[in-house]
Amino acid sequence: MTMLANGKEDYTQYDISHFSDEELLSAMKNIQNQMEEAVQQGESLTSEYMVQLSQQLDTYVLIAQIRRMRCVN
Description:
single chain; mainly alpha; elongated
């Protein structure tokens, strides 16, 4: 994740709100596959790479949850 001049993280690089549901699901599966591959290669769950992947996945899950809540209402 990139940092802004004020020291805060730049979340705009993960602007995925324009993804269709299928694209969102595909991206989530891709991140999951990357995480599984990294673990198989001995990557620690607390490594910077795994934390970064986890943060990306969290962002995607949040958008999916928001979409679901909007459909229910």
